[in-house]
Amino acid sequence: MKLLQVPTANLEERIKEELEENPALEIGEDSHEDNYADELHDEFSNDSDDFEPDGSTEDYDNVDISEYVADDDGEIAEYKLKDDNYPDLEDQRTMPYKVETSLHEMLLEQLGMMKLGEHQQKIAEQIVGSIDDDGYLRREVSSIVDDLAFRQNISTTEEEVESLIKIIQQFDPPGICARDLRECLLLQLERKKAEGRGTAVDKAIAVLSNYFDEFTKKHYEKIQKGLGLSDGQLKDIINQIIRLSPKPGGNVGEVNKAESYVVPDFFIVNNNGKLELTLNSRNAPDLRISEGYRDMLREYDRGSKKDKRQKEAVIFIKQKIDAAKWFIDAIKQRQHTLLSTMNTIMLYQEEFFLTGDETTLKPMILKDIAERTGLDISTVSRVANSKFVQTEFGTYRLKFFFSESLSTESGEEVSTREVKKILSDLVENEDKRKPLSDEKLTELLQEKGYNIARRTVAKYREQLNIPVARLRKEL
Known about the structure:
The chain is α+β, with helices and mostly antiparallel strands. The chain folds into 4 domains: 1-30 and 54-74 and 256-402, no CATH class; 103-168, no CATH class; 181-242, no CATH class; 405-475, Arc Repressor Mutant, subunit A (Orthogonal Bundle). It is 51% helix and 7% strand. The protein has 23 helices and 8 strands. It has helices at 2-5, 8-21, 36-44, 66-69, 103-112, 118-129, 141-151, 158-168, 181-194, 199-210, 212-216, 220-227, 231-242, 257-260, 291-302, 308-348, 350-355, 366-373, 377-386, 416-428, 438-447, 454-463, 469-472; strands at 25-27, 266-271, 274-279, 287-289, 388-391, 394-397, 405-407, 413-415. The strands form 3 sheets. A 4-stranded mixed β-sheet has the order 3-2-5-6. The longest helix has 41 residues, at 308-348. The radius of gyration is 33 Å and the shape is flat. The two termini are 53 Å apart.
């Protein structure tokens, strides 16, 4: 189950960890995507040795090690006195870490360039340390004063802290150390004003200073009337504001590569009307049991001397081989489960994978796939939530294909995904100067034959992250 949840992008690291921990496990040197070479080897092999050099797990099942584990000398073997749950104290590992400049390090560098006294420097460092990753200072000034008094024994006032906040707000990136969105946007506009960006910036400052609530709720008529603006001037102001960053600290520092792009677990190709499914095996190399361990086990089996040291060596080898066999079987089981689940989904939603039309998606729940594959529902859920498939129409998370059913006027059951797609298309093609209300969207869907209530339309709209009609309005 743990291996099943590991994303393809991280599976390579998991295999590397196992290779480092278990010397009996190794990567096959002659790894091929097809099995033709292996089949030829099996067909023409003339090896007479009982131990085949292909690292097969069956090679180690016939070794009799009863002589080595029998305690005929009455001594307790050293391996029995060890607890595998705790690593050896002398095992010092060096953990690699990513080198990057964080937001706080960037701010502290700029703070180091300011000519501040020791007292003010410590207060400013406390303020910088209180800034969230997105660049906002959400801690109250009074709380910062208390933190300095109780934790660092530094006495200060709210006025002094506020003055230092004003200094930090001049740092890069613009908008840093703001207490709320309004202040963040105003700080960025003030920076533009200082650079002489024109009258539109001054008017944008006036809008956010006096009509921030009206602006966020798109009550543009009130803003125009209050400031005496024309439609053209209002458009210029809106363009100035929407170019600002609502999270000034969000772009600082490197993004984790594993989170910045998706590595698909499956590939589906349409080959002249026939769907072909393949599993992404880039991060799942051909694993086998080490030939060196095979040779060692054979030598110990042929040896005549059966002392305590030899017993411990054989037990160690056997344990490592068993662990390697378990891991290889677990990887194979992972691949089998993934392929079985994805193949069933592909056949169930065959029309979508052939056409890419979301309206062709059938209603499908976890139970449907679990019954067809013979897997547990929880297993199907793990696969659906953590895996991706690449098609010629794009890359999708598997849970995208699961949806409840909805009845049409003719009694036919359709996927809610189909209804959401039509709803999304209606909103996308609407007149933005007169956006469609939920009532109008409900009427349009009912005209298309879908039995749906207004509250259901509102729920689907929210799930699609589509705002209400008033907030979709454009000039």
